[in-house]
Specification:
The complex is a heterodimer of chains A (1085) and B (233). By secondary structure, chain A is of the alpha+beta class. In chain A, a hairpin with a 5-residue loop joins β16 (350-358) and β17. The N and C termini of chain B lie close together (4 Å). Chain B has a domain at 44-65 and 86-221: P-loop containing nucleotide triphosphate hydrolases (Rossmann fold, 3-Layer(aba) Sandwich), CATH 3.40.50. Chain B is built from seven helices and ten strands. The chains are: A alpha+beta (1085), B alpha/beta (233).
């Protein structure tokens, strides 16, 4: 005889009693393992998606609104294994036309990617050779083919924003011919598995629309010869190492042209100029060339001396050494002979200069400045005409009257002598002023000079290049490779789905464990006398407890093992539901089923732990139990008065705590208020349970009160086994509490949809264009420029592309899309509600050199994992990063997925990002507005989405998770009501003798059933009432929030379902227990 | 009160032992034993008799260390058992005492032989000698053919005889029986009474039995009568 023998003999003998315990352990382990494996499935799905979108790509150098040499990659080859491919990626809108030439199908947000043969080294090709594309042909991905309904050989059209080295918002840039139409025919629809159909450097909620065309052809069409804006690389030992080695190599191989700089030698006139196609040389370049002659040349609309004036003249602001001693200072001006003659000006005269300044949305503002004529210089000296930068619309014009300078230009003001000057002297400045003064007037976010000039000497050019390359880092101009593979292939999701589903299934696990514990306790109660005997014959309480624990361990191991196996089925079911009915939770994407053996081990261990812990909780008191008590078949005795007092004290403390919390947090905001009230609700729940306990104790001990009917007699019975009764009440109350409380968090996007405080901000549409709009459509002039007739009320936002950080994207995002907005425009409209933060005003300024930002609360909490006050490092255009501090959370808004900063800060960090691409549009007549805007901005690839639809899509995610929680919670409550049924069955079985006696003295069986039903129906009523009251307090803030309310229909449905289910199980258990003849039970007594 | 005069240390000695239980009414307690004093010498057979509720079973539980007195002294084999902790008490019950209850309380999952051997594994490992002794004792009580049977297959008398052997397996000094024949018919009860007396002699074990049965009490050499919590004769 050994302990092992005894334990296994017990397990065999009590197999039926243990079946329930085993079932509980299986359910707990099933749910735990299944939930964890969901995490594996999501991870594998994201990894597969990452492989599909990256192919072999390990690193990428990506420039926003800047371009580098497309052969840069060739010079980077680190070894025979590494491969680099230059890409030219341009946003495009696509459409097909019917026979009448009308647009039939549209697709916006297309990635038009120029590729060369190197691109195919990044793909794992299954065919012998890569797909071939010729000029005007395109490879498209299946998603686009489906959207445009085109197949191989079909034609389609693309409209692209014509890239420009000179930012469209820059002063004197031309804002015409912004788009280019391309006609393409489909060469092939690419395969996602082998031809990188879904190529994308950024993880997204859905695969992109991709069009691949020959790089050289696209460069030609976009007028960007030998330029690229993306360089991808592969073949490194590891992505991280390759990125590091490539960045190192980049320091040797980058050239000034990659920074859009050029050195122009003029041997004849003896100078070398540094210039840029971007017109303006920024501060970093100036700092790298300190000590050199610097000039900033600008166009004056008018130079006036009294009544005489000269139109459209170049004026150069020059540094102190440029003209030797003559160089002007302060407000001094040197004028050329030609100008002096034209204006009749002489030294000492005051000349008024008018010029245009370009505002944020190309709003021209004419300003003036008065200069004192210091002296007169010749009309032209060598090297002066080269001071005019290559202003587009000017530099290539033969006649001055043909200028198209991107400012209001009145050719009628041009005189013949002006034309003559242009022909003879081109852009030679007609006047010179001090550099400092010129920079005060004309410096802008793009730069502070137009030319840096050195004296010519042999090999000087190389010397300058070398010096510049030493002083400038590739990172300074945004030339930096980043590892795009490691994180993508890690399969990290925005949220830990394993943990999430454990959270969602928490109540189901808890119910299973409570049921398991209850059944295990019943088993022990049945064996009370045996346990007492063992203790009487010399076993210590501890030894007996350990024997029972070991029995439990065997059951737990078995349950955990079987549960892990069943868990895989549970995962498959959940994956199936997530891909269909619950698709809203994952942005209607698709996830594939996958499991890792280690995860199953964790599931088994988790299931084992919770099962053992539950069993330990049920048997832990046995070590203190008395043999004599157990021999009398009682498992525990308690001092009612003490526990009663304790319960009253706890009830009072929790009740007062709930009230205090409610009062204190009445005026709190956001999470604190919601969390606080949830805590208050929980405290009220505990208080209710304690009161129920006291009531049951009172029922058990109040011998004096007599009962007058069957119902009260039955009700008295609920106090016999208070522990069991309390478990039932607690199980039901917790379930009802959670289901009702969670129900109140559902979002109804339709509620208050038109109001400015709502998630739509009161805007009718959310618009997004592929081509940026440069003008303010709120102004008549802006609308005129865009050929839009009618009134418009909208807010325009600038866009810096980044990851979609909305809840529709499962991937972890580190670099969300950035929007720049004028905060006044949103605060004037009282748009959106802040759950945290002081409104749109927080975006203003840049305190502590940190850019303030606002983000939707869901995006902040779940995608970016930040709280208000947190600081995010964000890459800036000029290389390196800048700091963004989250200053506010928007409540449930349609602006999910983006970080929002002020336009002022936006343009400072991203000067090259021209125009506006996101539009929040108000409208009294949505249909008309939609029609008119879509027509006017067709070329811009404008896609209008009804704000309500956008908000609904986001709300659907939260609501689907709540659905899942409620469905799993309902399953848990089902288990809870099964538990109630088991308790009823057990209670009735234990009391068959007593019931037989009642039958013997004349009670009908139906009366006995009613009595038992009344007893347990009371528990049901207590549980539901306690749960509902506590939940109502917990969700009080939600009930008083304008955009939320308690779904009363759902609340009644939940309560009704629980009541019906509970009564059904109670009735069933009573009927089963009382079936057959009761009277023989009297003899068994 | 019959108190044998002995020069040696008594096996069991109770001095002014009382036992009170909390009552439903607060501030009051129910006094079940009121200053019981008695001595038991080794090898004695004692019947404790008295009306229901007089405290017989409570007395037996106190002697068997299943319960502790409210006041008074209780020594077993010279040791004050009120000073022992739960583990020491369990060890004492296991090695020095044997229990027979009105209900046999056999473990239904174990065979007759296994049930008998259970006390041997409480504080040590069962040995071959234990099994030999169990077999021999079971043979002795007429259960040699029933070793592998489970309790459910035994008659009431057989179950109680198994319980008797279980009580004797660790060679206890004291055998305590609480209404051992209470659930048996007259004939079986008589045979069990005889068996207990025979085993008392064979195993040199002291026997104290609580009973309502006059015939069983008559088998014992000494009778202690309890009334209202006191020994009255």
């Amino acid at each position: 005889m050994t302990f092992t023998h005894l334990i296994f003999a017990s397990l065999r003998h009590h197999a039926r009693a243990h079946a329930g315990t085993l079932l509980g352990a299986i359910v707990a382990s099933t749910v735990l393992t299944g939930s964890l494996v969901i995490g594996d499935s999501v991870k594998r799905t994201l990894q597969d998606q990452a492989k599909q979108r990256l192919g072999k790509t390990q690193i990428a150098l990506e420039q926003h609104d800047r371009f580098f040499r497309s052969d840069l990659g060739e010079q980077l080859q680190l070894n025979s294994q590494t491969r680099f491919a230059p890409l030219l990626k341009i946003n495009a809108a696509g459409y097909t036309e019917n026979e009448e030439g009308q647009t039939s199908k549209r697709a916006n947000n297309i990635q038009l990617i120029g590729i060369d043969d190197n691109f195919w080294h990044q793909a794992i090709l299954k065919a012998d050779r890569p797909p071939i594309i010729r000029e005007s042909e395109a490879l498209i991905n299946p998603r686009l083919a489906k959207q445009l309904n085109i197949k191989e050989g079909d034609d389609f059209r693309l409209r692209i924003a014509k890239p420009s080295v000179l930012p469209r918002d820059a002063p004197l840039s031309v804002a015409e011919d912004l788009t280019v139409r391309l006609r393409l025919s489909v060469a092939k629809i690419t395969s996602p598995d082998s031809e990188l159909a879904n190529f994308n450097l950024r993880p997204g909620a859905t695969p992109p629309y991709n069009v691949f065309v020959p790089l050289s052809w696209l460069q030609e069409e976009a007028e960007l010869p030998n330029r690229a804006n993306i360089l991808i690389g592969s073949g490194g030992e590891s992505a991280n190492k390759l990125a590091s080695e490539s960045n190192q190599k980049l320091e040797e191989t980058w050239r000034l042209t990659d920074a859009e700089l050029e050195l122009v030698e003029n041997k004849v006139d003896g100078f070398i100029d540094i210039r840029t196609d971007r017109i303006f040389l920024d501060k970093r370049i100036l700092q790298a060339t300190d000590g050199s002659d610097t000039a900033l040349t600008y166009i004056a609309n008018n130079v006036q001396n009294g009544t005489q004036s000269t139109p459209y003249s170049m004026i150069a602001a020059v540094s102190s050494d440029f003209l030797g001693d003559q160089t002007p200072k302060g407000n001094q001006m040197l004028i050329t002979q030609w100008l002096a003659e034209d204006l009749g000006a002489k030294p000492g005269d005051k000349l008024k200069v008018d010029y245009y300044i370009l505002g944020l949305n190309r709003q021209l503002e004419e300003r003036s400045h008065t200069f004192n004529v210091k002296g007169i210089v010749p009309t032209e000296e060598p090297g002066w005409r080269e001071l005019m930068p290559n202003f587009p619309g000017i530099v290539d014009r033969d006649n001055l009257r043909d200028w198209n300078p991107g400012i209001d230009f009145d050719s009628g003001r041009v005189r013949d002598k002006d034309e003559e000057f242009w022909k003879k002297h081109r852009g030679t400045p007609k006047a010179f002023i001090a550099l400092e003064t010129g920079q005060k007037l004309w410096a802008n976010r793009y730069g502070e000079a137009t030319t840096i000039r050195y004296s010519f000497a042999e090999s000087k050019t190389e010397e300058i290049k070398s010096s510049l390359r030493k002083k400038l880092e590739p990172t300074d101009i945004g030339l930096v490779f980043r590892d795009v593979r490691t994180e993508a292939l890690s399969g990290k999701s925005a949220n830990d789905f394993g943990g999430l589903f454990i959270g969602l299934s928490f109540f189901l696990v808890l119910s299973a464990l409570l049921l398991m514990g209850l059944l295990f306790v019943f088993g022990i109660e049945q064996r009370a006398s045996q346990i007492g005997t063992l203790m009487a014959i010399g076993f210590t309480g501890k030894t007996v407890r350990n024997i029972l624990l070991t029995e439990g361990l065997v059951l737990a191991i078995l349950g955990a093992g079987l549960g892990a196996w069943a868990g895989l089925g549970y995962t498959q079911t959940l994956v199936g539901l997530l891909n269909t009915d619950w698709g809203g939770a994952i942005g209607n994407g698709t996830i594939s089923y996958h499991y890792e053996p280690l995860t199953i081990c964790y599931g088994v261990l988790g299931g084992l732990f919770v099962a053992i812990f539950t069993i330990w909780l049920t048997v832990r008191k046995l070590s203190r139990a008395k043999a004599i008590t157990l021999l009398q078949e009682e498992t525990s005795t308690s001092d009612n008065s003490t526990t009663d007092r304790k319960a009253i004290v706890i009830a009072i403390i929790c009740f007062l705590g709930a009230i205090v919390l409610g009062i204190v947090l009445k005026d709190a905001q956001g999470q604190m208020k919601a969390g606080g009230f949830f805590g208050a609700g929980m405290m009220l729940l505990i208080s209710c349970l304690c009161l129920c306990h006291c009531y049951l104790v009172k029922l058990a001990t109040s011998g004096g009160d007599s009962f007058t009917n069957l119902t009260s007699m039955g009700w008295r019975g609920s106090a016999r086994r208070r522990g069991r009764s309390l478990v039932c009440i607690g199980l039901l109350a917790c379930g009802v509490f959670l289901l009702v409380a969670i129900g109140a968090f559902r979002i109804d996007p339709k509620e208050g949809a038109g109001e400015s405080w709502s998630g739509t901000g009161g805007f009718a549409f959310y618009g997004q264009s592929d081509v940026p709009l440069l003008y303010d459509l709120n102004t008549e002039k802006g609308r005129e420029k865009m050929a839009f007739n009618g009134e418009l009320n909208l807010v325009q936002l600038r866009v810096r592309e980044g990851d979609d950080a909305s809840c529709l994207n499962l991937n972890q995002t580190t670099e969300p899309r950035l929007l720049g907005v004028n905060p006044d425009q949103l605060s004037e409209r009282n748009a959106f509600t802040f759950s945290k933060g002081k409104g749109w005003e927080v975006l203003k300024g840049k305190p502590d050199n940190i850019v303030p930002a606002v983000v939707d609360m869901n995006t902040g909490m779940w995608a970016l994992h930040v709280k208000v006050g947190d600081i995010i490092d964000y890459p800036k255009e000029s290389g390196g990063t800048f700091k963004i501090r989250v200053e506010g959370f928007l409540s449930n808004s349609m602006l999910q997925g983006d970080l929002i900063i002020s336009e002022e800060n936006f343009v400072e960090q991203f000067p090259s990002a021209s125009g506006y691409r996101v539009f929040l549009i108000k409208s009294e007549n949505p249909e008309k507005t939609s029609e008119e805007l879509s027509y006017a901005l067709e070329d811009y690839g404008l896609e209008l989405t009804k704000s309500m639809d956008r908000l609904t899509a986001y709300s659907q995610v939260q609501n689907t998770y709540l659905d899942i929680f409620q469905i799993l919670g309902a399953m848990a409550l089902l288990l809870g009501s099964v538990g109630l049924g088991v308790v009823v069955l057990r209670n009735v079985m234990e009391r068959r003798g007593e019931l037989a006696l009642l039958q013997a003295i004349g009670f009908k069986k139906g009366s006995l059933q009613w009595m038992m039903l009344a007893e347990h129906g009371g528990l049901l009523a207590l549980g539901i009432t306690g749960g509902v009251l506590s939940a109502l307090l917990a969700v009080w803030p939600s009930l008083t929030t304008p955009d939320q309310g308690l779904p009363k229909g759902m609340l009644w449905a939940i309560i009704g379902a629980i009541l019906i289910s509970g009564l059904f199980w109670t009735w069933l258990a009573t009927v089963i227990a009382l079936r057959g003849k009761l009277l023989p039970s009297l003899r068994n007594e | 009160m019959n108190t044998p005069i002995s020069l040696s240390t008594p096996l069991l000695k109770l001095e002014k032992v009382t036992r009170e239980f909390p009552s439903a009414q607060k501030d009051e307690s129910l006094q079940v034993l009121r200053g019981v004093s008695m001595q038991v010498e080794s090898g004695e057979t004692i019947a404790v008799i008295g009306p229901s509720g007089c405290g017989k079973s409570t007395l037996l539980n106190l002697i068997g260390t299943l319960d502790l007195p409210t006041s008074g002294a209780l020594t077993f084999d010279g040791r004050d058992i009120t000073q022992l902790n739960d583990t020491e008490l369990a060890a004492l019950r296991n090695s020095e005492m044997g229990f027979i209850f009105q209900s046999h309380h056999l473990l239904p999952q174990c065979t007759v032989l296994e049930n008998v051997l259970i006390p041997t594994i409480a504080h040590r490992t069962a040995t071959g000698k234990d099994e030999d002794r169990a077999r021999r004792l079971l043979e002795r009580v007429g259960l040699g053919e029933r070793l592998t049977h489970r309790p459910g297959k035994l008659s009431g008398g057989e179950r109680q005889r198994t319980a008797v052997v279980r009580a004797l397996i660790n060679k206890p000094k004291l055998l305590l029986a609480d209404e051992p024949t209470g659930a048996l018919d007259e004939s079986t009860a008589g045979k069990l009474g005889e068996l207990l007396v025979e085993l008392n002699e064979e195993e040199k074990v002291t026997l104290i039995t609580v009973t309502h049965s006059v015939s069983l009490a008559s088998c014992m050499k000494r009778t202690v009568r309890l009334a209202e919590g006191k020994i009255v004769e």
